[in-house]
Design brief:
Blueprint (H helix, E strand, L loop, with lengths): L6 H12 L5 H14 L11 E9 L5 E7 L16 E3 H6 L8 H10 L13 H6 L4 E5 L2 H7 L4 H9 L3 E4 L6 H13 L5 E4 L3 E6 L2 H22 L16 H12 L1 E4 L2 E3 L2 E5 L2 H7 L4 H7 L7 H4 L4 E2 L11 H24 L15 E4 L3 E6 L2 H24 L7 H8 L2 H8 L10 E5 L4 H12 L3 E6 L2 H11 L4 E4 L5 H15 L4 E4 L14 H29 L3 E6 L12 H21 L4 E8 L9 H10 L4 H5 L10 H13 L6 E5 L10
Parallel strand pairs: 5-6, 11-12, 14-15, 14-17, 15-16, 17-18, 18-19, 19-20
Antiparallel strand pairs: 1-2, 1-4, 2-3, 4-7, 6-7, 8-9, 10-13, 12-13
This protein binds zinc ion.
The site of zinc ion (ZN) has 5 residues, from loops.
C-alpha cells in the first residue's frame, strides 16, 4: 500500500489550523486520520478510529491531559478537529481498575468527561486508545490484514507475516473488556509497534503522527506481500450461459423481492446500487461462492451494513428470463428464513429484549453480472456495495492463503444487535417516501421542478426528465437527495424508454410516475389544422400513455404496486375558448388515468390525476397573464387570485396535490382540483 504522507501537505494543514488556534499535533492527527479514512482498503464508512493524547485548557483555564479520539458519526476521510472530541484522560485510566463496566456506563463515563459537552460521542474503542501509552494511536479494519486474521489459525499466520512486531489480541467485542485485554497484551511486550485484534483489525501506535501512520502502511503492505507470496492460485471459474441477461433486466424484480412487505399492499422499499468490475466478476466465478457468502462478514461492524453476508443468485440466462423472478423469490425467501433463524437462535441465548430487524439482504451477488447493494437510501445502497467490494477482497486474500474463517455468527449477532452499533444507523429516520423512486416528466418546468423537490424533501429519489438536459440536471440538483436529471424528448418512445432505463440503472426501479409535461397550442377548433392537433396529441396524450406503459412495465416486474399521476389540467373537464387542441388530449389523458386505475388496481397500481388551473408555469406565461387580465379588466394580481380563496395558486400547490396522491395509499381513480376554488368548473 502506498504511503501517502507528504511533508508539504502536512505542513499546509498545520498552518491552516494554526490560524484557527489549533495546535500542531491535533492538526497532524487530522491529517493522517484523513489519509487513513480516504482509503477504503483501510477504513469503510464509520469503521476505524484514531486518537492523540494532548494537554488542553478548559473554559476556566484549568489544564487537563486529554485524549482526542474520533467521535461517532464522523467520517475519517473528511474529519475536522471537532470530530476528535477531547476526553479527560485520568478518569478513563481510573476506569481500568474496575472489574467490569457496562456499555451504557462506558458511554456515560466518556460523555461525562468531555471537555466540550456538546461534542460527539467518543468512539466505542476510546478506552483501548486511552489504555495504550503512546501519543498517537491508529486503528483500521485493513482488508489485507483481515485476509490474514479471518483464518482458523490466524495467530501463527500473523507470526509468520509480522514476526514479534505486533501483539495478538483474541477476539472480544469492542468495549471495556477488549480495552483491558489489549492493554495487557501490550504490557506483556512493550516493544510491539501495534496490535492485531483477531477477526477485527489492527492498531498501530507511536509518539508522532507520521510514525503511527507509517507503521500502519508498513504492516498493511507486509500483509499484502504475505498474501501475494504465499497465496495459492484461484479455482477455475464456473462456466456461464452464452446469452447472459443484463443487470437492467433483473433489477426491478430483485428490488421488488427485497422490499419489506408490511401487509395489505404496503411496503418499506429499498433502492439498489449495481456495481461490477473484473475483480468482482472474477470472484463471482468462484465455484464455492454460495458457501463463502454464508460464512460471514470480514470484520464484525460490517454486519450493520450487510447483516450476516451477501445473498447469492444464480446466473440469469437471457433465454430463461421469464423464470428468473421465481429464482429471485426463492433466494430471498431462503435468505430471510436463514436470517430469522439466526436471530431467533442467538436472541434466545439471554433475557435481553430485542426486536428483529427486517430479514432482507443488503448485498446480492449475481455471478456473470456483478453485485447489487440495497439500502433505504441510495447512500446506504452504495455503502452496501462499497462494503461488498472490500468483503470480496478480504475473502479472496483469505482463500488464497488458507480458508476464510471470520467471526462466528453468534459473535456477529452480538455486534449487529448491539445498541451502540444500532445507534449509528438511528440517525437516519425514514421519511414518508424514503426508499421510493419518482420519475417526473416536464421536470424542469415550474410544476415539475416543484414536484421533484417536494418528493425529494419527503425522502424519494427523483429522476427529473426534461427536453433540456442542462435544465433537467439543474432541477435534479435543486431537488437534492441524490436525484438525477435526464434530457429526453418524451414524444420519442425510444428516448422515453431510456429515461426509464436510467431510473432502473441508477436506483434499481421506479415507484411513482408524475406524468406532467405538456404544452398548449391555441386556435378555434373549427379552423384547427389536423397536424397541430396531432402534435398536441403526441405530447398531451401519447407521451402520457407511453410513460405510463413504461412505468407499469417496471411496476409489474417489481410486484410492489406503484403510482401513476397525471397532470390533466382544468382543460380536461372545463374547456376554455381556443384551447381545444390542448383540452382534447388532456381529456383523453384524464380518461387514461381512470383506465389504468381500473385495469391495474388489482396489482396495486394506483392512478390519479391533478386538475390544476391558472398556475404561473411554462404554459401560462407572464405575457398571457398580462393579456388575459387586461381583457377581463382586472389587475394581474386579481386575475391570478380570481378564485374562492382569493389567493394565487402556485406550482408548489400542484406539487402538494401530487404528493397527497402519492401518500394516500387507498386513493385511486381520483381527480384532485388545484385552482383555489372555482364553482363553475367543479367536477360533478
Ligand atoms: Zn474496530
Amino acid at each position: 500500500m502506498k504511503n501517502l504522507w507528504n511533508d508539504a501537505a502536512a505542513e499546509a494543514i498545520v498552518a491552516q489550523y494554526a490560524a484557527k488556534g489549533i495546535d500542531r499535533e491535533l492538526a497532524l492527527r487530522v491529517y493522517t486520520t484523513r489519509l487513513l479514512g480516504g482509503e477504503p482498503r483501510l477504513v469503510l464508512h464509520g469503521g476505524g478510529n484514531t486518537s492523540v493524547k494532548l494537554r488542553q485548557t478548559d473554559l476556566v483555564g484549568d489544564e487537563w491531559d486529554v485524549l482526542c479520539v474520533k467521535g461517532s458519526g464522523w467520517d475519517m476521510g473528511v474529519i475536522e478537529p471537532p470530530g476528535l472530541p477531547a476526553v479527560k484522560l485520568a478518569p478513563l485510566l481510573k476506569a481500568r481498575r474496575l472489574a467490569s463496566l457496562t456499555d451504557e456506563d462506558m458511554v456515560a463515563l466518556q460523555r461525562a468527561n468531555l471537555l466540550d459537552p456538546t461534542g460527539p460521542n467518543p468512539s466505542v474503542e476510546t478506552l483501548l486508545h486511552a489504555f495504550l501509552p503512546q501519543k498517537f494511536v491508529d486503528h483500521t479494519h485493513s482488508t489485507a490484514i483481515l485476509s490474514l486474521i479471518d483464518q482458523a489459525d490466524s495467530q501463527p499466520i500473523c507470526a509468520a507475516a509480522f514476526g514479534r512486531r505486533l501483539g495478538f489480541v483474541p477476539y472480544i467485542k469492542p468495549g471495556f473488556d477488549l480495552a483491558k485485554a489489549a492493554a495487557e497484551v501490550f504490557e506483556q511486550d512493550t516493544s510491539v509497534e501495534g496490535l492485531i485484534l483477531d477477526k477485527h483489525g489492527i492498531f498501530t501506535f507511536a509518539e508522532t503522527a507520521k510514525d503511527a501512520y507509517d507503521r500502519m502502511i508498513e504492516f498493511v503492505t507486509l500483509a499484502e506481500d504475505f498474501v501475494a507470496r504465499t497465496g495459492k492460485s484461484r479455482p477455475a471459474p464456473v462456466a456461464l450461459p452464452s446469452g447472459l441477461a443484463t443487470a437492467r433486466d433483473i433489477a426491478p424484480a430483485l428490488r421488488g423481492a427485497v422490499a419489506v412487505a408490511k401487509g395489505e399492499g404496503r411496503y418499506d422499499r429499498m433502492v439498489s446500487d449495481f456495481r461490477t468490475s473484473p475483480a468482482i466478476l472474477d470472484f463471482l466465478g468462484n465455484p464455492r461462492l454460495a458457501e463463502l457468502a454464508r460464512i460471514g462478514v470480514s470484520t464484525p461492524d460490517l454486519s450493520i451494513r450487510i447483516k450476516t453476508g451477501p445473498m447469492v443468485l444464480s446466473t440469469p440466462d437471457a433465454a430463461k428470463l421469464a423464470d428468473y423472478p421465481r429464482v429471485i423469490g426463492g433466494a430471498v425467501a431462503e435468505f430471510a428464513s436463514a436470517y430469522t433463524d439466526y436471530f431467533r437462535t442467538n436472541d434466545a441465548r439471554d433475557d435481553v429484549k430485542r426486536t428483529m430487524l427486517d430479514p432482507m439482504p443488503r448485498l446480492t451477488l449475481v455471478p456473470g453480472l456483478g453485485m447489487f447493494g440495497h439500502g433505504r437510501t441510495l447512500k446506504d445502497a452504495r455503502i452496501a456495495s462499497d462494503v461488498g467490494e472490500m468483503w470480496i477482497e478480504a475473502v479472496v486474500g483469505a482463500e488464497a492463503i488458507g480458508s476464510f474463517h471470520p467471526l462466528a455468527h453468534a459473535d456477529l449477532f452480538e455486534l449487529e444487535y448491539w445498541s451502540l452499533e444500532q445507534a449509528k444507523l438511528a440517525v437516519n429516520k425514514p421519511k414518508p417516501l424514503t426508499g421510493q423512486v419518482v420519475l417526473v416528466t416536464g421536470g424542469a418546468g415550474a410544476i415539475g421542478a416543484a414536484t421533484a423537490k417536494l418528493f425529494a424533501d419527503y425522502g424519494a429519489h427523483a429522476v427529473v426528465v426534461d427536453i433540456d438536459p442542462d435544465r433537467a440536471a439543474e432541477a435534479a440538483k435543486k431537488a437534492g437527495n441524490q436525484s438525477i436529471g435526464v434530457g429526453c424528448d418524451i414524444t420519442d418512445p425510444a428516448a422515453l424508454r431510456t429515461a426509464f432505463d436510467k431510473a432502473v440503472d441508477v436506483f434499481g426501479g421506479l415507484d411513482i410516475l408524475v406524468s406532467n409535461a405538456g404544452n398548449a397550442w391555441e386556435g378555434m377548433i373549427g379552423d384547427l389544422d389536423d397536424a397541430l392537433l396531432r402534435k398536441s396529441f403526441e405530447l398531451n396524450f401519447f407521451a402520457h400513455q407511453n410513460a405510463a406503459q413504461n412505468a407499469v412495465r417496471i411496476f409489474k416486474a417489481q410486484g410492489t404496486g406503484g403510482v401513476l399521476l397525471f397532470n390533466t389540467s382544468k382543460q380536461a373537464i372545463n374547456p376554455g375558448a381556443k384551447f381545444g387542441a390542448y383540452g382534447l388530449p388532456k381529456a383523453a389523458t384524464l380518461f387514461l388515468s381512470r383506465q389504468y386505475a381500473l385495469e391495474y388496481g388489482p396489482i396495486g397500481v394506483r392512478s390519479n390525476a391533478v386538475n390544476a388551473d391558472r398556475i404561473r408555469s411554462g404554459l401560462l406565461t407572464d405575457e398571457m397573464i398580462a393579456n388575459r387580465s387586461k381583457a377581463r379588466g382586472l389587475s394581474e394580481k386579481d386575475y391570478m387570485s380570481g378564485n374562492l380563496l382569493g389567493l394565487e395558486v402556485t406550482a408548489f400547490d400542484v406539487a402538494q396535490a401530487f404528493l397527497h396522491h402519492a401518500l394516500a395509499e387507498r386513493t385511486t381513480a381520483d381527480v384532485t382540483t388545484v385552482d383555489g376554488g372555482n364553482i363553475a368548473a367543479t367536477l360533478r
